[in-house]
Amino acid sequence: MKKVLSGMRPTGKLHLGHYFGVLKNWLELQEKHDCKFFIADWHALTNKYKETDELKENIRQMIIDWLSCGIDPEKATLFIQSGVKEHAELALLFSMITPKSWLELNPSYKDLKFNLYYQYLRDFLAGKQVKINQTPPPESFDEALEKATGKQKNKIFEEYLREAFHRAFYNKKGIDFKWLKEVLIKLGLQKKIVEEAVKNLEEGDVGKDIDTLGFLAYPVLQAADILIYKAEAVPVGEDQLPHIELTREIARRFNNLYDQIFPEPEAMLTEESKLPGIDGRKMSKSYNNAIYLSDDTETVNKKVMEMKTDPQRVRKTDPGNPEVCIVFEYHQLFTDRQTISDIDTKCRKAEIGCVECKKILAENINRFLDPIRERRKEIEKDLPKYEKVFQDGTEKARAIASDTMMEVRKAMKLWEF
User: Fold this and answer.
1) May I ask the CATH architecture of the domain 295-381?
2) So where are the chain's domains?
3) What is the model's pTM?
């Protein structure tokens, strides 16, 4: 049995992507390990510091979602980060010994800035109705750039757009806006639209919300979250591995400077949810393409009917290709193997229509969500009772954190009060 710690930022209602990406794994971990799961409300402020009006309600909804899905306070310690002030104290002390370069070179920091800028560019072009085709052409980026002609105007493949922006972003001098503008025009985008998009990137507010000390230093707070409980393992996806390594570096540095207090936690790799939103993009509140754990039956039915299917299948009598269909992707998680096999065969032979296929999926998703809905109703009837579960868990976590901080202060020879 290992000491395991994990948290989630309360930035909105949880959806199916959160369930299959995080909660499903937590349900398994709480049966085998000493788990602590926390609502990371301080971390929510790192790029949402202007949006605190909904923070408390988001925390309440997260409490309901966790408990409705089966996260059990009898099997794991559940708490709210800001209720344990020792996290902030340890993060402050860690910041004294953490070289700034460790944070600036953190690939996750760079990648998030890249994604913010890139997503803005992509959404801007989509808003201008510049078509982005999901199917990449056979040529490489360089070959496409050489062959780009006026015939490609208003049309660009997403892979090329991302590659162009990647090359403009990851150079030694920062974003090369001039090169980006030139290459997008060569790829066939209208000059006026490109100039407006690049100007907004260069002069607008994109990325400003993470140009703060809090965001730069959030891996230090994350290290404090983990080490204050002497966690031995942290469930993460591959994109979070640099953060765990940074936590290990901070632990080693502290132990070498003062005393052997902190273990070096291991990354417990988890499979990230690849469940897309109903429009094929990443499932996200900001895209309005998510199926939430709190959605009722009618809402789920409506969203499933809006799902994109094989774009080449125009009529019911046209054979379909399940491999490029979002609905079929969902069937892999919610439908039994035999039915999936039947749908695959019938779709390719045009023996089943998309509407019928979607109805089967909607029924299965609703069947999956029904027990969660029932537990949600019970919790909402007496929410203060369940909020107290987190208050009790926070007190339990605070007691552990307090003991650790006594060791830290003693090791650092700080004044004793």
Assistant:
1) Orthogonal Bundle (1.10)
2) 3-99+216-275+383-411, 107-210, 295-381
3) 0.84
